[in-house]
Amino acid sequence: MIPVMLGVTIVISSIVYAAPGNPARLALGDGASPEAVAQLEQEMGLDQPAHIRYFDWMAGVLQGDLGTSIQSGRAVTTLIIERLGPTLELALVAMALTVIIAIPLGVISAVRQYSWVDNTSMFFAIFWLSMPSFWLGLILIYLFAVRWQFFPVSGREGVIFTFTWWSFILLPAIATGTRRAGLLTRLMRSSMLEILNEDYIRTARGKGIGSKAVIYTHGMKNALIPVVTLIGLQVPLIFSGTVIIEVVFSWPGMGRLLVDAVLQRDYPVVQGTILVYSVIVMVANFGVDIAYTYLDPRIDYS
């Protein structure tokens, strides 16, 4: 994990400082004198070679210091901490909705293969896959917030898990998770169909074990292994999806912070935000690896 993290930090620094635009010039404005720009570049360390800037930044990262925002003058760590909670809320609720929708639909579709339930589920799964998240978000805002006024248009209010909080987070979470739900539904169906045709499932049925026990006790647990793999692969997409959804719904998370920082060439904020996103994804993938050992005891990471 440590080598991967080092590679991520190198890539982040390389991309950020290769981007066009002078942060010092942007911070001071077009009317600033060359002397003032040069002085600010020196204060920001922009006059140093790239490898020196990287090592200086890494030294701060190891101490929990991600630098100072060029635009606001505030510590990047403070800005990220303020925005981290809303982003995690949105991503976790979106993933929960994805799993709650996809796994039951996939199982039911497999058990009732070629029935109207199966056909309807697969229709919606393909429809969800074909719908871009930002476009679905705009449709949800128009229908449920503007036209019918069931939900607020944008923002975030209320204490977590209260009715007010749910009213603000539900639409962006649906917009973020729906495409993933379509993909997981199709995978769960195909995985369950494969498991139901295994010899041990037929043996269990031949011994007179009830259909529900065969499906949920013997079949579903093994069918979840490829689904959990895909969930792990979807974690980066969920978090990258929250970036545009936070902009669409004016959700005060790290996604909006990152977009604003990119537009303003606020490089310390861009670096810090992408680094935190990377750490979250790595931790989530580690959690998926642990989940494998529960679903299949034959897997051993020791």
UniProtKB/TrEMBL annotation:
Q: Which Pfam families match?
A: BPD_transp_1, BPD_transp_1_N
Its placement in the membrane is given as:
Multi-pass membrane protein
- What are the subcellular locations of this protein? Cell membrane
**UniProt domain ABC transmembrane type-1: residue ranges:** 84-292
Q: This protein's superkingdom?
A: Archaea
Name a GO CC annotation attached to this entry. Answer: plasma membrane
Indicate whether Transmembrane appears among the record's keywords: yes
Tell me the keywords, alphabetical order.
Answer: Cell membrane, Membrane, Transmembrane, Transmembrane helix, Transport
TM regions (residue ranges): 90-111, 123-146, 158-178, 227-254, 274-295
**InterPro entries noted in UniProt:** BPD_transp_1_N, MetI-like, MetI-like_sf
In Gene Ontology terms, what is one molecular function of this protein? dipeptide transmembrane transporter activity
Q: What is its main location?
A: membrane
Record-stated family: Belongs to the binding-protein-dependent transport system permease family.
Q: What name does the UniProt record give this protein?
A: Binding-protein-dependent transport system inner membrane protein
